[in-house]
From TrEMBL:
GO terms for cellular component: membrane. Keywords: CBS domain. It comes from the Bacteria. Residues 350-407 form the CBS domain. It comes from Geodermatophilus nigrescens. SMART domains: CBS, MgtE_N. One of its GO terms (molecular function) is magnesium ion transmembrane transporter activity. The keyword Cell division does not apply. This is Mg/Co/Ni transporter MgtE (Contains CBS domain). InterPro entries: CBS_dom, CBS_dom_sf, Mg_transptr_MgtE_intracell_dom, MgtE_N_sf, MgtE_transporter, PRC-brl_dom, PRC_barrel-like_sf, SH3_actinomycetes.
Length: 412
């Protein structure tokens, strides 16, 4: 099948949705977008998928690897099967955008939205870039149909004035997580919590990872417990573990129970380690491959958009199972080496046998390890030879800097 970079949402409705193994997950029912201020194209946040028993769930757009004429394919990973609940600042394309009355900017004539096209940008983000609109007809006939760029139509953007959280969020859409975190810290506490409530789970999870500990705790406490659990599921396991470690045992266990078991288990494992050791700062979700995986498969895995550059710099080869803690750890392969080899070559044939870190290794030893071998990520293996995670250089720097380094950076 041919992967498309632009598709009209009405044609996507009802398409089957498959996981990477070809197993059917459900059917696509709608696309969730975030409107913006002015003429900026709305960002597609995710899709609504109907699974068994007509249950509708939300799948972030980052999990969509391809849209084909006859199917939608998702990336690997656990699906959150909680029932979809629309949040503030979210708009359903089929449910709310279609049939809206708009104004054609060039002619100033009214028209009705009959379809909307989502398109993938060069950065991998999906946006609503075009609209199909129809002018009113005469004597019962259909009016003229236009396919226009989003900026050629007025009446759908958020207003530039007013104090609604949706409008404020729309002004922050283009900010990366770190800059948005800085902007949130400049807001009054009440306003900050309103904006956090209106952010989607993935966006809020990214921002929480960039905030000082006290601000993280305040925002988490302001959320309903079920929402807090959803956001923790979207966070990197190491960031979620760091945040939960600051809570009381009662609060921590309650949130872990509310999380999906597959999402909570890696966090529970990380909470076993001291925060100033390799085990305490590692992530439990590096790129792990079986010994029979090819270089082509490895390169496809490191292209997944949710991976940080440091974690995408190398892959780890282990015997099954492939989830941490894995089977026996065999070695790692650097992305530069993979790019120099034929795609059909087995990854296990180009492994670096670098001695891995132990979970109990103190931060000083981890720092020396990175400096000695000029790495941006390193494997962590337990005394049974199993890969339990990987430490990335950004995690090391985060623990070496003073606790208030984010606050100092914000001030100047």
């Amino acid at each position: 099948m041919t992967t498309v970079s632009r598709a009209y949402v009405s044609r996507l409705a009802g398409l089957p949705v498959f996981d990477p193994n070809g197993d059917r997950v459900g059917r696509l029912r709608d696309v969730v977008v975030a409107l913006r201020v002015g003429t900026a194209c709305p960002r597609a946040l995710g899709v609504v998928v109907e699974v068994v028993a007509r249950r509708r769930i939300f799948v972030p757009m980052g999990r969509v690897t391809s849209i084909d004429p006859g199917a939608v394919v998702l990336a690997s990973g656990t699906l959150n099967l909680k029932r979809f609940e629309q949040r503030r600042g979210e708009t359903l394309v089929l449910g709310e955008l279609l049939d809206r009355t708009v104004t054609l900017r060039e002619s100033q004539r009214p028209a009705t939205v009959v379809d909307a096209a989502v398109e993938q940008t060069r950065t991998g983000e999906w946006q609503v870039t075009r609209l199909a609109v129809q002018e009113p007809g005469r004597l019962g006939r259909r009016g003229q149909l236009h396919q226009l760029a989003w900026a050629e139509v007025a009446g759908l953007a958020l207003p530039e004035t007013g104090q609604g959280a949706e409008t404020l969020i729309a002004t922050y859409r283009e900010l990366n997580a770190a800059d948005l975190a800085h902007a949130l810290q400049d807001l009054p506490e009440k306003r900050r919590h309103e904006v956090a409530e209106a952010l989607d789970d993935q966006r809020l999870a990214d921002v929480l990872g960039e905030l000082p500990e006290a601000t993280q705790m305040g925002i988490l406490a302001s959320l309903a417990e079920t929402r807090a659990a959803d956001v923790l599921e979207e966070m990197d396991p190491d960031d979620a573990a760091d945040l939960l470690s600051e809570l009381s045992n009662v609060d921590r266990n309650r949130l872990l129970e509310l999380m999906e078991p597959d999402e909570a288990e890696p966090v529970r494992q990380l909470l076993q380690y001291s925060e100033d050791t390799a085990g305490g700062i590692m992530t439990s979700e590096p790129v792990i491959l079986a010994p029979d995986a090819t270089i082509a498969e490895a390169l496809a895995r490191v292209r997944e958009p949710e991976l940080t550059p440091s974690l995408a710099s190398q892959v780890y080869v282990c015997r099954p199972p492939s989830a941490t803690p894995t089977g026996r750890y065999l070695g790692l392969a650097h992305i530069q080496r993979l790019l120099r080899e034929p795609p059909s070559t087995l990854v296990s044939g180009v492994l670096d046998d670098l001695e891995p870190l132990r979970p109990e290794a103190p931060l000083t030893e981890v720092t020396r390890y990175f400096a000695t071998y000029n790495l941006v990520a390193a494997p962590v293996v337990d005394d049974r030879g199993r890969l339990v995670g990987a430490v990335s250089v950004d995690d090391v720097l985060d623990h070496l800097l003073p606790e208030d380094w984010r606050e100092r950076a914000r001030r100047g």
